[in-house]
Every structure is written in structure tokens, then in C-alpha cells.
Design goal:
The protein has one domain (about 5-15, about 60-220): Rossmann fold. It has helices spanning about 10-20, 25-35, 40-45, 50-55, 65-80, 95-105, 115-130, 145, 165-175, 195-200, and strands at about 85, 110-115, 135-140, 155-160, 175-185, 205-210, 215-220. The protein has about 220 residues and is of the alpha/beta class. The protein contains 10 helices and 7 strands. α6 (about 95-105) links the parallel β1 and β2. The longest helix has 15 residues, at about 10-20. Strands 3-2-1-4-5-7-6 form a 7-stranded mixed beta sheet, sandwiched between helices.
Length: about 220
């Protein structure tokens, strides 16, 4: 059996998106760090509006790495997840990996949220090009609003948006997580101080491990 991830449509879209992201390899981290400077994300948001910063970074891909995407696919398949929540759609690279796994799990729904409307539209087009849009519901707006209304239990959560919101988003969806649900946080090695409250939270009710994939994946199992 060939996985959906290896299908020509999915491979073509991922190659196109990774090529576009690679052309921004120098631009994206520079733009992100120029805003941050020596400050933490908490200090940054004391002086800047999150929506304004999101608009300024509108054309930046900030994709997961291929290795991280493959890890997302494997974890989603291993969990046999059919109900997935993603915080941070961007151009839907990570969403494609998740949706390919859900397709191969027999179908289901991915609820993903993106603050920037232009990115959300582009994500929808990319998912349609990959033939996976029927599995994905894109919600536009602040995740703390768009993820308040979730139906049914959640099998897997991917946190890949603004890092200072990982803990609030997890707390928002936590009541939907059953024992055995998986929570994946990307970029935990990027701003370690920012993630300390999130990692501290995982010490109760989760079994968790940091994996050196991409900018660091924190993989957590709900106990």
C-alpha cells in the first residue's frame, strides 16, 4: 500500500512549498529575530500588537522541516488519529502532512487555525491542490477564539503558531484530550525561555520528550 504522502499530487505541492520556503531561508529568521531582538516574546508583545506582527510576517512561510513533517505523519498514523487540531496553519505545509496521515487512517477531520486571512486562503488552495481539502476545516482568527468550539474528543494536537500562546491554546483544548492523546509542540529549541511555562505544565498529566527534529519537537502523551 502506498501512503497518501507519497502520492504525486501531495509530493508536487510539498516540493513547491518547500522550494518557496527555501528561497526565504535567510529572510524568515531575520525578520522574526529583527522583531524580537534580545527580548522574550512576552516582552515583545508588551509593546507590539500580535495581529500587527502577524500582518508584517504575512508572506513568510516559516515551514516545518521535511523531517519534522515526516515525524508528524508518523505520529498521526501511530495514534490512528481521526480528529486533529492544529494551531498555526500558515501555508499548510504541516497541515498537508497531518491530512495525509488522517486520510491513510481512514478519514477524519483536521481543525486548523490561522490569524492571517491571506495565508488561510493560500493554505486552502494548497490543500485543494494536494487533494486533501475535504479533510480540513480552516478557521481564521485568534486561536483563543477559533478553538473554543470543538466537537468531540481530540486525538492529536499540533502547536506551531506564536510560541507564547502554546500553553493558553493547550489549556483551551485540554478538556477534549483523552488518555493516549498526543500533543506536539514545534520549535521548542528556538526560544527555550519562552517555552519554560509550557514545559512545566507538561510535568503533570503528561509523559513528554523533546526530540531533536527541526527546531525541536516536544512530543507529549496525555496520561
Amino acid at each position: 500500500m502506498t501512503s497518501t504522502l507519497a502520492s504525486p499530487r501531495v509530493t508536487s505541492v510539498l516540493n513547491r512549498l518547500f522550494d518557496a520556503g527555501r528561497r526565504q531561508d535567510e529572510k524568515a529568521p531575520a525578520a522574526y529575530r529583527d522583531h524580537l531582538g534580545s527580548r522574550s516574546l512576552e516582552e515583545l508583545f508588551e509593546h507590539r500588537d500580535r495581529a500587527e506582527l502577524t500582518d508584517e510576517l504575512n508572506d513568510i512561510y516559516m515551514p516545518v522541516t521535511r523531517e519534522a513533517g515526516e515525524a508528524l505523519y508518523l505520529l498521526t498514523r501511530m495514534r490512528r488519529a481521526t480528529r486533529v487540531v492544529e494551531f498555526g496553519t500558515s501555508y499548510a505545509i504541516s497541515t498537508i502532512y497531518l491530512a495525509a496521515a488522517v486520510r491513510d487512517n481512514g478519514g477524519g477531520t483536521i481543525v486548523t487555525t490561522e490569524m492571517q486571512a491571506d495565508k488561510a486562503r493560500a493554505a486552502g488552495e494548497n490543500l485543494a491542490a494536494a487533494g486533501l481539502d475535504d479533510l480540513v476545516e480552516i478557521r481564521v482568527g485568534d486561536a483563543l477564539d477559533t478553538l473554543r468550539d470543538l466537537d468531540g474528543p481530540v486525538d492529536l494536537v499540533l502547536l506551531d503558531g506564536w510560541e507564547d500562546l502554546y500553553l493558553p491554546v493547550l489549556r483551551l483544548v485540554e478538556s477534549r484530550l483523552a488518555a493516549g492523546s498526543v500533543v506536539i509542540a514545534d520549535d521548542v529549541s528556538f526560544f527555550p525561555d519562552t517555552f519554560r511555562p509550557y514545559l512545566d505544565h507538561l510535568s503533570t498529566g503528561y509523559c513528554s520528550l523533546t526530540v531533536p527534529v527541526g527546531n525541536g519537537l516536544e512530543i507529549s502523551l496525555r496520561l
